[in-house]
Amino acid sequence: MNGAVGFIGLGRMGRAICQRLISHRIQLIVHNRSEDKSSELVRQGALWVPEIRSVARAANIIFVCSSGHQAVEQIYHDKNTGLLANVVEGSIVVDLSTIAPETAIALHAAFRARGADFIECPVSGGVEGALKGALSAIVSARPAAYSIVRPLLAAFTLMVTFVEVPGKAQRLKILNNLAESINLAGAIEVISQGQALGLDLESMQAVFSTCRGRSAYMQVAMNYALSQGGSSSVSLAVRCKDLDLAQQQMPIGPSYPLSTVAMATFHDLRLTFGDEGDQCLYFSRLSTGNAGSAS
Fold it and tell me: How confident is the model over 134-143, as pLDDT tens digits?
């Protein structure tokens, strides 16, 4: 393995992870569809290249952090510039994204056929967690490949769960994201009810962070409310992409009303506020008294 590490996908999460890797003195070769997102990383020492195939030829360990089926197709399957067409034998591709389990399983097989390894490694913890090096990750991979990249994962993760079986990491991550969505919608409703009853945010923060109603997403919602609409660093496009994946793998037969309501709620918010709207804009919907259309 050479010393350089590749990184494809410089959204908010990708840039935060890159900053952690750079802080650990790891030489990065980065690529993104829009070069401007690499400018700060380049100032910190990263090298930007204009094509995905340039990353594949320059680095034996390559991280991918993307969103959406279209990005997956371009990054992996483009016949000229994609990773599968250009990957070097012995390379390891680590995908930090949340993608369909079936897609992950197919990529495991496709890279093995080329003498390379694919590691599915979806991460959780948000941009703030990435900047602190406190992300959680779920890894499905060959144990030998995982042992090679594990020191790199330690730069930006606090907890890694290794499950080995292809597709299993994605199934677990998708369910985790569904739980996030249910918890977030519930937390926003509870805080909004408290405000309507005349309770101040500081008192609710003190109670909801110490009593058994607390959760990570109660804190996300509370931080958003306290910042008066700052940002939770997750867009409605990303939230809905994750919920679409959850809906695709939802078991047939039983009824899951909370899951169904969460899916409808965030998709309705996306229609109203657009792809780049913050996931916590449910606060705005509730404040207008039109929450009923989301269910």
Answer: 999 999 999 9
